[in-house]
Design brief:
Length: about 375
């Protein structure tokens, strides 16, 4: 009997459970293989008997529509830099691959983002791990795939938030600033800003000036549109500015965030218009995956097992030109996919009059 393992690594994204379900349905129910679920990224290999689950059909019943991951995840589960029980860091990469081999695991299906794929490509290169990557992230910023699951759910939620902010903004003639996740890519801000009919969209790929943002808000006032909606990606920055970050006191970890408040305060101070800000944060990562994400996740999970059936290892499943395919894992390791400032979505947004804050500012009369 063939034996594989599956794990989820990095931040969660709606659709992870749909991938796990697809992997178990095709792998265990249809093919008759054994599939171990490793809990909390690679950490489960060090957590005793509870850290590894012999997955069967019952484990995945009813999980298609559930957000999160039944396997748990962590974004600090790097075997090359593992946190040991005494709190110190150690390199457990070789031991991690050995523990998988001791379980009889032939290859690993790693559902993760760029961090997980980097780690797995390195484990493959240095210790011969056989791996198949499945790309997940709400940020949609993984190289070589035009879509990751989780993104559609995040955009649907952010668009709903923009819709809600529209009605209250209009009632009060206020400027509403909404900060969305996305790390150093502006996909979520761009998609939800365009789908929600925002007036200003600020993304990392197009550095902005507050002057241009304010000019847009004032121009709308002059045209008797009293309110404005600004969607700002957490990684956006001014042309001459720095990233806005917050340091978590307990861990010292540096997290993106704070740009929404900064932009809102700058607008209020320089225009006198009442301005409010909302940070969507992890709400974008939670909840029920959309039908699109369930479909994509199921297709990705099915494709991962198909790669294993054909013994095609060290590849990542991907969507290219709308079709499910795969690419070498090495080709995606170490990079991310950003918004091309000249792409058709940005072009459509500009065509709808959305400002990106890079416009030259004409004098306001
Ligand atoms: O990559 C997904 C993401 O949600 C980013 O958009 C965000 O910057 C980051 O993860 C937050 O990570 P954490 O899980 O550490 O809060």
């Amino acid at each position: 009997m063939r034996t594989l393992a599956v794990m989820t690594g990095g931040g969660d994204a709606p659709g992870l459970n749909a991938v796990i379900r697809a992997v178990v349905k095709r792998g265990v129910t249809v093919n008759g293989w054994r599939i171990y679920g490793i809990r909390h990224s690679f950490d489960g290999l060090y957590d005793g008997p509870d850290g590894v689950i012999d997955l069967n059909r019952d484990h995945v019943r009813g999980i298609l529509r559930l957000g999160g991951t039944i396997l748990g995840t962590t974004n600090s589960g790097d075997p090359f830099n593992h946190t040991l029980p005494d709190g110190t860091k150690g390199d457990l990469a070789k031991e991690t691959v050995a523990r998988l081999a001791n379980l009889g695991v032939e290859g690993l299906i790693a559902i993760g983002g760029d961090g997980t794929h980097d780690i797995c490509a390195r484990l493959a290169r240095e210790y011969g791990l056989k791996v198949i990557g499945v790309p997940k992230t709400i940020d949609n910023d993984i190289l070589a795939t035009e879509m990751t699951f989780g993104f559609d759910t995040a955009v649907a939620y952010a668009t709903d938030a923009v819709d809600r902010l529209h009605t209250t903004a209009e009632s009060h003639d206020r400027v509403m600033v909404v900060e969305v996740m996305g790390r150093n890519a502006g996909w979520i801000a761009l998609a939800s800003g365009l789908a929600g009919g925002a007036d200003v969209v600020l993304i990392p790929e197009i550095p902005f000036s507050m002057k241009a943002v304010i000019a847009k808000v004032l121009r709308r006032r002059k045209a008797r549109r009293g309110f404005s909606i600004v969607v700002v990606a957490e990684g956006a920055k001014e042309s001459d500015g720095l990233l806005h970050t917050q340091v978590m006191k307990a861990s010292g970890a540096v997290k993106l965030g704070g740009i929404g408040r900064y932009v809102a305060e700058a607008i209020a101070e320089r225009t006198g218009i009442e301005t409010r800000f909302t940070v969507l944060g992890h709400l974008l990562r939670g909840g029920t995956p959309t039908a699109y994400d369930r479909l994509l996740a199921t297709r990705f999970g099915n494709a991962a097992i198909q790669l294993a059936e054909r013994n095609e290892w060290n590849r990542m499943v991907a969507m290219r030109d709308g079709k499910i395919t795969s690419v070498p894992l090495e080709s995606v390791a170490g990079g991310t996919r950003s918004v091309d400032p000249n792409c058709d979505i940005v072009n459509a947004a500009r065509g709808m009059g959305i400002a990106f804050g890079d416009e030259s500012v004409a004098p306001i009369e």
